[in-house]
Amino acid sequence: MESRDVPCPFCGCLCDDVFVTVENNRIIGVENCCTLGNAKFLSKKRLKHPIMRKNGKWVEVTYEEAIDETARILSDAMRPLLYGWSGTIGEAQVVGVHLAEEIGALIDSTTSVCHNPSILAIQEVGHPGCTLGQVKNRADLVVYWGCNPIEAHPRHMSRYTTYADGYFIDNTASDRTVIVVDIRRSEGAKVADEFVQVKPGGDYLVLSALRAMVRGKSDVVPESVAGVKKVQLQRVADLMMKAKFGAVFFGLGITMSRGKYKNVRNAIELVSELNRRTKFTISAMRGHFNVYGFNEVLTWMAGYPFAVDFSRGIAFYNPGETTVIDLLERREPDACLVVASDPGAHFPKSTIEHMAAIPTVQIDPCVNATTALCQVQIPVAITGIEVAGTAYRMDGVPIRMKKVLETEFPTDQEILERIVIRIREIRADG
Amino acid sequence: MAEILLKNAYVIDPISGINGELMDIALSGSRIVEEASPKAEVIDCHGFLTLPGGIDSHTHYSGTKVNFGRYMSPEDMRAGRTARRGPMHITSGYSVPTTYGNSYRYSALGYTTLVEGAMAPLEARHTHEEFKFTPLQDSFANTLFDGNWGMLRALEDNDIKHAAAIIAWTLSAVKGFAIKLTNPGGTEAWGFGKNVSCINQTIPTFDLTPADIIKGAIRANELLHLPHSVHLHCNNLGTPGNFTCTLGTFGHVPDLNDKRQSLYATHVQFHSYGGSGWGDFCSKSEPVAKMVNLRPQIVIDMGQVMFGRTTTMTADGPMEFNLYRLHHDKWSNHDIELETGSGIIPVNYRKKNLVNSIMWAIGLELALLVENPWQCMLTTDNPNGAPFVKYPEIIALLMSKRYRDAEFATIHQDTEKRVPLPAIDRELDWHEIAVMTRAGQAKALGIIDIGKGYLSPGAEGDIAIYPLRIDDIDPSADYEKVIKGFSQTEYTIKRGRVVSRRGDAIIDGENTTFWVKPKVPAAYDMQHDTAFQELFERYYSVRMSNYPVQEEYLHRNHCIETETDL
Amino acid sequence: MTFILSSGRTIPQGSFVEHKLSKGYQRATSMIYIHPLDIMELGIESGDRVHVTSDIGSVVLTTEATNDIPSGCVYIALGPYANAITGGYTHGTGMPDYKDISVEIEPTDDPVQTVWDLMEMIGGVRYGK
User: At which of A249, A267, A284 does a domain end?
Assistant: First the structure.
């Protein structure tokens, strides 16, 4: 059986043109996909049964027992943390948000450790953006700043920018200029028309210099800024001002480095400034395929894109306090539910030390680093391959993920719903 | 089937021709019926004002840009939060509340039906997701076509039937309700940072003027026999002197439909400005209202501005950028490939600001100068002019000259020289308010046939009962009582069930999404049109097969099929 | 020697991301990219192992010479090895310092630990072998 136009459940590009061949309920062929997506579609390893730690040893248990234990852990908790969410569909995230509200939990997503600073910057100065097709059809200048599309979003360039055909672009090779700004000569830098190599931590300075130049104040810019020569900066500023449609894409290179959200704010303000002269947009290169979806869901349900604390009976949001890293660093949570992410592999050591010290449950199809930190792991169907539902692309376009394989495994949503029901039963029993 | 008998209801139901009658209303299941059985639950209305459920024919409450308004504004979220209580979920937000916040607060005001003012087709799925979490109101989505490449190309070829076919395919695909044009041509120009300044100026990319787009869309709309007319956000929103553009636009509107208007012009307050700049900015509500009075084929809504903080959000991307350059506050923009644009900025309308004071006056003037209330709907273009929670104050302002004068005394003192408001004595009555908040909407939207906006047997059981005994109130003097009475219903009944009681939602609703599916002959089915398919394959960033909104997003829904002249 | 360390995504890390306990993932995320001049300065060869120590902790990584980053800077794929030397302080932003970390690097013969080893060091329990 062949399925066309399957959206890929890997990164925020959500390429929706993947061609999947299935035989005997196994994927035997994947076309149009990148290395990262291919690996996910063709992956066979998974956890087969729920597992639980008893007396320091892992044992297989039934779904019922695993769900019961999870419900008990969450019911007993005074300060539960519900974390993850970016690798599942909106329909499951909704259940997660309702669960958090009902038990007064703090809910946060992987956003907290990727584009959280981008959201903070947007909350200060807004976000001049657009859908990716707008870039594809119009952009004659593309800037990748602190991101590495070839390695993190491998088809971004071929679908939307460097190698994509567009309505107003006769020849994508000659009509589009690509600028890459990074601390290292990444693969993307090697195909750029202009590579700007910034010293680590220097993005804020370079952005400020460009803003000065765009405002006609080149004279205040010194000969070298964070390792970048003024002549090159002037060349970049001129390219930006001459562009008919410029599109900036930025990544963790500026959200995680010194300055954090102030870097992003500076980049947005550069783009806002450029809009007084020409057309410019800026977009975050979102990582997980549905990391943006969680931000959307939590926002329409609770008012904030991430890091919402329901413990006071209202939605309370204060990044730096209600963000997952800070919460764990303060050793506040006394129970943790991880869904569709792997903090064990992505959080600083001190924070996962705390996760290992409290009852932690993970809902995930695969054994991963977080498994080691858990008391219980509940395996589920793989979203976007075995489960259909909604995901939001990095530019906010919602796409329905498809189901191409049948499965016996329950979905994230089903498990979460069963946990909610069980918690209500436990509470009713007093 | 559950039954309710409302006793001693003081009913104003303009569509049924009832203007203040003490009567009983029987409900069975979701509908109003001739009489209830003895098993019916009896609710004594104590002579309180009983109206059909409120209908907001132009409000921004669901979808990409609304949610981005929340996303970028934690300060607004903090300004309106409520705790979880009974069956009510937590809510956040003042000018852009969360979906539950919108639903509970609209319900408290007696609103049972909402029309999302602007849904971008490419992101329609998002709008429908939020509809699901707006449980106490039925939803309709105005669908943006102002920069739709397929439609514009057909209009460029002067092929109205082809344009209509593309509209039909798109509305069916995205489960939309009506054709919305926002700054037609301007949003396409904004793709390269430009705008259009006049309805007769040729737009970029297509050999068309905004006037061509508007006229073409009106004709296509009638070919498809859509329930609603074209819903237009005129060009040049917010610019001094734009009233000439508005009048020019209205001058182009033919009278093509005997059941309703042929053009619905939205938030006309923002389009009734005189002056050559901000220095001589003034009201031009009089010529605009006069034009509406002369042309029954036009219906407008107010787009009233009320003072205080709010968030502006529109598909009109270039306008929001201009606003940003005035306010220097945060600015978001979101262009949508091949379709439209959008922008968001927070604003604070101040009494001490002359322009804001004039804007406030213009909205009221339009409502008072348009003679026929069926031609002017009460809106704030929520949340652009103000959050919808200000509706009770607007009702009171329209009903009381004394209240208007009292307010007028508090605004910028130069306003008097720029607006006709102080000279207008008209005070609207209860019946006119009922028209402007529900009956007129039902007629203008073309949804009377599906049971909306009236209280006779056969109608949907959508009812608002306000704690107002109108014979005891002189709205001219007791405007505080009017505000209070319209701020919180005694009961809001949605589809035959009490959903809201004295401001609290008491059950989770059973909302329905209404959408339109024009029946198109095979020759005009764009699904199999190769040129149309190629447009997707080459220029959209999603595949054509992934574009339509699937049934899964509709939950309860009602498809309105139309016969077409294609 | 003192270096500035940054972490980020790489293709090998991404392709093994669903198999975090695999040798491939371990290799992809325990590789430290370093300029050839710095390799010489350390007196080692590309592929030799080093101890990388920050204020937070220490971890053994395998070097990989590259001209793509300037001398004085080193790069590592995000993952458990990078996190072993990353602190949880966020400057009130919610975001830890995953980039621009000051580290000491010195040659070592110690083995590279497995992901399970790292998880057990902070109190976890490995599943399976």
Answer: A284
Tell me which residues of chain A, numbers 17 to 36, contact chain B at a CB-CB cutoff of 8 Å. Answer: 17
> Is residue B42 domain-resident?
no
Interface contacts A/C by beta carbons within 8 Å: 202
Contacts of A134 in chain B (CB under 8 A): 191, 335-337
Put simply, the chain A residues between 392 and 421 with a CB less than 8 A from any chain B CB are 392, 396-400
Q: What is the pLDDT of residue C12?
A: 78
Kindly state whether residues A197 and A269 are assigned to the same domain: yes
Tell me which of A60-64, B47-51, B125-129, C15-19 is least confident.
C15-19
According to the model, what pLDDT value does residue B352 have? 97
Does residue A5 belong to any structural domain of this protein? Answer: no
**CATH number of A73's domain:** 3.40.50.740
With 90 as the cut, is the pLDDT of residue B327 above it? no
Q: Would A228 be classed as within a structural domain?
A: yes
Mark whether A294 and A254 lie in a shared domain.
Answer: no
Helix (H, G, I), strand (E, B) or coil at B159: coil
- C-facing residues of A in 12-41 (CB < 8 A) are 35-36, 39-40
Number of domains into which chain B is organized = 1
Question: Is the same domain home to A93 and A168?
Answer: no
**Mean pLDDT over residues B4-13, rounded?**
98
State the pLDDT at residue B198.
87
Task: Kindly report the CATH number assigned to the domain that includes residue B172.
Answer: 3.20.20.140
C-alpha span between A75 and A408 (Å, rounded): 28
* pLDDT confidence tier of residue A188, bands split at 50, 70 and 90: confident
Q: Is A342–C20 a contact, with Cβ atoms under 8 angstroms apart? A: yes
A44 confidence band (pLDDT: 50, 70, 90): confident
C-alpha closest to that of B546 among A10, A6, A13, A135: A6
Query: What range does the domain containing C81 cover?
Result: 2-121
Q: Which residue range(s) make up the domain with B218?
A: 51-458+462-505
What distance in Å separates residue A38's CA from the closest CA in chain C?
8
Spell out which residues of chain B touch residue A278, defining contact as CB-CB under 8 Å: 193
The parent domain of residue A306 ranges over 47-113+289-429
C-alpha C11: how far from chain center:
16
Q: What is the nearest CA distance from A301 to chain B, expressed in angstroms?
A: 6
Task: Determine, yes or no, domain membership for C126.
Answer: no
- The pLDDT score that the predictor gives to residue C129 is 65
Domains of chain C: total: 1
Q: Is residue C89 part of a domain?
A: yes
Q: Does residue A185 belong to any structural domain of this protein?
A: yes
Nearest-Cα residue of chain B relative to residue A244: B192
Say if the Cβ atoms of C6 and A200 lie within 8 Å. yes
Phi-psi region of B460 (alpha: psi -120 to 50; beta: other; left: phi over 0): beta
Q: Does A326 touch chain C (CB under 8 A)?
A: yes
DSSP letters, B94-126, are SSS--HHHHHHHHHHTTEEEEEEEEE-GGGHHH
Residues on chain A touching C9 (C-beta within 8 angstroms): 148, 151-152, 252, 287
Number of structural domains, chain A?
A: 2
Identify the DSSP state of C22: S
| CB nearest to A320's CB, from C17, C19, C92 | C92
Q: If you search the block for the tokens 């093994």, which residue do you land on?
A: C16
- SS3 string, B69-92, reads HHHCCHHHHHCCCECCECCECCEC
Which CATH number do you get for residue A265? 3.40.228.10
The verdict on A66 and A169 lying in the same domain is no
Mark yes or no for CB contact A258/C123 under 8 Å: no
In a domain? residue B537: no
Angle between helix B149-156 and B210-223 (nearest 10): 100
Which of B95, B103, B324, B333 should be substituted to probe chain A, the one whose Cβ sees the most A Cβ atoms within 10 Å? B333
CATH of the domain at C9: 2.40.40.20
**Region A55-73: what's the mean pLDDT?**
97
Distance in angstroms (rounded) separating the CA atoms of residues A107 and B551 = 30
Give the closest of A16, A137, A278 to B546, CB-based.
Answer: A16
Query: In this complex, do B335 and A317 lie within 8 Å of one another by their Cβ atoms?
Result: no
Q: Nearest 5°: CA angle at C44, between C40 and C48?
A: 135
